[in-house]
Amino acid sequence: MKMIKKLLYHADDIVASAALIILVGSTILGVFYRYALSDPLDWVEEVSLLCVVWFVFIGGSSATKRNGHVGIDFVIALFPAFVQKAAFVFVQAMCYAVLSFMAWWGWLLGLQAQLKVTNMLRIPYTYIDLAVPVGCILMMIHLALGTRRNWKALFSREKEAAS
């Protein structure tokens, strides 16, 4: 059970890493075939597109899990605790709103793309487009877990400042 929990926790890291490795490998292979052998591989662009989309959205989940997105928190730290909390709540609400919007429209896009396939590999675009809702839902899950952790940190700073 512990192993399954650990695997699920790192699933986004594994998928994003695999997508990046395949992206880099296929790109190097494509460049080699195009310029060294003068025989371009037709499928490289499609694989690259699939890998980039999955890497971006699932990698975003991995970054959210680690609180690794760029933030300008030094400005917020200049304000009193109640302003910091209000800013935190506002930012979290905006993140949930944007991620929900993207997940919903990504899901609709994926459903619309069922009949559209890539030219060479005949991969339905649904498999490419579903990275958007999957990644956004995972980001919301990690954001919820991080919200609890960050909220506790905000309160502990306030208690330290009071003592």
Automatic annotation (TrEMBL):
This is TRAP-type C4-dicarboxylate transport system permease small subunit. Keywords: Cell inner membrane, Cell membrane, Membrane, Transmembrane, Transmembrane helix, Transport. Its main location: membrane. The chain crosses the membrane at residues 12-35, 86-107, 127-147. It is a multi-pass membrane protein. It is found in: Cell inner membrane. Belongs to the TRAP transporter small permease family. The keyword Ligase does not apply. GO terms for cellular component: plasma membrane. It comes from the Bacteria. One of its GO terms (molecular function) is transmembrane transporter activity. It holds the Pfam family DctQ. It comes from Aminivibrio pyruvatiphilus. InterPro entries: DctQ (IPR055348), TRAP_DctQ (IPR007387). Residues 23-151 form the Tripartite ATP-independent periplasmic transporters DctQ component domain. GO terms for biological process: C4-dicarboxylate transport.
